[in-house]
Amino acid sequence: MIDPLDNPVFLNDFLDYSSSILNKSQNSIKEYNYDIAHFLKFIKFRFRMTNVKDKTELKTIEINDMDLQTIEKITLEDIHAFLAYLKDTYNSKPATLARKASTIRIFFHYLCNKTKKISTNPAQDLENPKQEKRLPKYLSLEQSKQLLETASHPQETSHGNHDNSIRNYAIITLFLNCGMRLSELVGINIKDISFEDNKLNVIGKGNKERTIYLNEACVKALKVYLSVRPHDGVKGTDRDALFLSEQKKRISNRTIQYIVKEELRLARN
Predict the structure, then answer these.
(1) What are the residue boundaries of the structural domains of the chain, listed by start?
(2) Residues 253, 182: contact at Cβ < 8 Å?
(3) Residues 157-206 pLDDT 10s
(4) DSSP strands (E only) in the chain
(5) What CATH number labels 141-268?
(6) Is 200 helix (H, G, I), strand (E, B) or coil?
(7) Residue 127's pLDDT band (cuts 50, 70, 90)
């Protein structure tokens, strides 16, 4: 959760701009806040504006007293040093470093070009770290069938609690048939489903809504799951969430990742 009191005013202004004008999702806003706050803590350490002597203690540094005069002093070399620190300290991968670099570019573009709060943009020539080329991972038709077969017969496996098998089967079915992102699946609400038109509305990348048309397998899996989905004891904020955890809250990204990983493992055995 973001606490505005922990941030300097110009960072809070940037987050407000990202939310209202750039229409970024709440998850993106949280990531922006984390990335820029981490960067500013590093800057205070690098500029010797703190008593912290060890880079491993950067998270203890407070940044709510930072001013724009300090931001004016930041150079491209300072940004490179931050990215190098992330790689050396956290073994950050190129994809992670590229995301951090992108956030920093957007932040300085806002400060320099949009609001004129600073006179020069140190991130103007910032390049993305070179990415490793990887072939996409995918399942063959036979592997997909085996995965669905495994998920639909939990009594034949030996893992965990099987009370959620119908839910897990619906999750696997949607993933295999709809090509949706993890965040899209987690964010589905019951009201987003139209069985009359066999379609589903999801909130995708950039907080944009898109429509997914459901085939017979998806419709059947969803209807069966909804017939057993808990209703009593579900918290108000998650009452309309489609997929629920054992705690009767909206299911988390991590839980779905575990479900898919475990079903894949069982399907391969």
Answers:
(1) 4-114, 141-268
(2) yes
(3) 333 344 688 898 899 888 888 888 888 999 999 999 999 999 999 987 77
(4) 193-194, 199-203, 209-213
(5) 1.10.443.10
(6) strand
(7) very high
Place of tokens 């397998």: 217
Long-range own/partner contacts, residues 147-153 (CB < 8 A, 24 or more apart): 147/172, 147/176, 147/263, 147/264, 147/267, 148/172, 148/173, 148/176, 149/267, 150/263, 150/266, 150/267, 151/263
CB 238, CB 244: distance < 8 Å: yes
How far is 204 from 208, CA to CA, in rounded Å? 5
Q: Residue by residue, what is the 3-state secondary structure of 208-262?
A: CEEEEECCHHHHHHHHHHHHHCCCCCCCHHHCCECCECCCCCECCHHHHHHHHHH
Identify the residue whose tokens are 């943009």: 121
**Alpha carbons 163 and 246: distance in angstroms, whole number:** 9
Judge whether 246 and 164 are in contact, CB under 8 Å.
yes
Q: Copy the structure tokens of residue 206.
A: 């950039």
| CA atoms of 219 and 193, how far apart (whole Å) | 10
Would you tell me the crossing angle of helices 253-268 and 165-178 to the nearest 10 degrees? 90
Amino acid at 79: I
Put the strands of the sheet holding 209-213 in their side by side order.
Answer: 193-194, 199-203, 209-213
Q: Provide CB contacts within 8 A for 222, sequence distance 6+.
A: 170, 174, 193, 195, 214
146 against 76, higher pLDDT: 76
